[in-house]
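P.,

For your records, the input lines for the assembly:
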Amino acid sequence: MPASPLHEAIAHNKARYEEYAHGTFLRLTDKYHGAPRGSVAIDGRVIYGYPSIGRILRLETGLQHQFRAPFWVEEKVDGYNVRLARVGDEILAFSRGGFICPFTTDRAPDLAELHILREHPELVLCAEVAGPGQPYISGHPPYIQEDVKLFVFDLMRLDQPGYLPQPEKRELLQRYALPAVQHYGRYTTDQVQEMRELLLKLTAEGREGVVMKEDSSRDHRAKLVTSYSCIDDIRGTVDHLRDLPAEYFTGRVLRLALFLEEQGETKIGDLRLQLGSAFLDGLSKAIEQWKQEQRVYHTHRCRFRNPENARRLLKHMKRSTGHLHVAQRRLEKEGDYYVLEFDKLHAGMTGLLGHALGGGLVFD
Amino acid sequence: MPASPLHEAIAHNKARYEEYAHGTFLRLTDKYHGAPRGSVAIDGRVIYGYPSIGRILRLETGLQHQFRAPFWVEEKVDGYNVRLARVGDEILAFSRGGFICPFTTDRAPDLAELHILREHPELVLCAEVAGPGQPYISGHPPYIQEDVKLFVFDLMRLDQPGYLPQPEKRELLQRYALPAVQHYGRYTTDQVQEMRELLLKLTAEGREGVVMKEDSSRDHRAKLVTSYSCIDDIRGTVDHLRDLPAEYFTGRVLRLALFLEEQGETKIGDLRLQLGSAFLDGLSKAIEQWKQEQRVYHTHRCRFRNPENARRLLKHMKRSTGHLHVAQRRLEKEGDYYVLEFDKLHAGMTGLLGHALGGGLVFD
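Structure tokens returned:
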């Protein structure tokens, strides 16, 4: 698709102009004519969005039902989704929603050697950024102890939806020594038991789950998460339970129950205690924080190469999270980086705990 | 308020006519000019609705904040709310929403000797009906092993909002030997420790909680539930998690966390394990039921004196729950009663489990 059809979406209220350093670009706020939400038209080119992948909740029937051919299995990493692309002379990182991410754009040179985008300027890297030093979510994989890491999982081409075939992608990732998600091999739909064992191994390693990609021209995909992921998500976000849709929590409890049902009791350890602890210990932390400081918040600490990008990130966060809910603590040079610390206020939880701990009446 | 002002609510789309054996009556579908939702105008009289009582989530601040005078403490029973009143020659039971409940109306003579309504036809009994033999909710107090029991907690007068004062109410309940909720005495706002101990005792006894009623002309009220209630509610309803608002579950987890925070770790036993088990064991039961019968449902078993009321109940249930979601299993005479068995289909859970266990893709 050349850039112009995306411009039609404006008339249908499904696209918006955004500003960036060199002018404006267009961002799809909703899917439009086959282009996913988050697709962007910039500098005369289109970078297609990364559509969400459906999840299966049961291996035995799910593999049979979803796949007509063998499929590749890759790690699903617990971070945020970005697309890295060359725009003019720069490499820009786009968020799932099609915003330019000032943090990822700033740190791109640290995350990977990106010669690939200089030698193949028509390519787009689809990747997860994960780690405790990221600005968006509070959780991170336990095997990343500091800052952030990049995990490429797909390559796209400018102006084209869809992804490069798996062998071509892997060859390029290897040739350019790009950091990629773990690759667990090619499975057939009757390898249910092998997949169960893989999921158990990933649970034990504290990994989020897998993405399965059919080895066929239709490249059909599905994801599946571990019990670790369900519980870790709850533990990591229950302190702002009132700032998320309640379905966020009930959905994860349901996934966990189906995981337990598929894997059987004996192999997993005490999921009941883990689940109850995730809820109650996480909330207990939020209550303690409110009692100490009369608010519930999370402090993010991110490193930047250029302090201007830290300011851009804060501006972006204030726009998406609410102006009063993001507050800078400090922005200071430390060694080669500028360290930004900011608090994200959990307004719903702060309000509820203030009311409840203060002895107010709740009607529900 | 005479009956006529309630009729004004029709013009504001806040009241509906309902049919009953002797004609029609009016039911407020929303609050209107100080009359709560569920108020009814019938046979020239008004029976005021029973408004919902706000809950406190913390004793220490809640008692101070809510009450300006000592307050009576009564058991909050886990059942459904009815108002029993004399209409013409009959005693009718009205649900919270202002419908005539065919089950409670049928069984009223078994639930209590209602001489009081013959000698004082201007009185209205506000009560909870609880037990495994009731048609509405699946949970019940562990101390009621079969059928249903009535627990009166307030008296009202026809055409008047508000309740009789506590001493007058208790005198009448005693004089007419009416079954009433447990009365735990009169407390002052500084008896926080005593109230904490009472709540712990009620948790151990499997009771839902307390309703506190200020001993003053304003008769201000607040309720507070036990950790037992939070966990028992989740265990009893998680099999139809997708048929209830997700906030039903997250709200109870929050209450539990605040209960734990107030009462401290040591006195309560392992709430973490209890909470996790309530979620996972309840869901596991639903999954098993789906695997056996390809649907998730609950079978209710209720006794009636008059089979016509059983048919009325089913009609009422089909109207409120959805025609296809209620199915009669049998209606047969057993001893002095007609036993109605019917299934309530949990359509959301049946659909979700069918999709998920069948290997379908879920987008969320």
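Two observations worth noting. The radius of gyration of chain B is 21 Å. Chain B has a mean pLDDT of 95.

Regards
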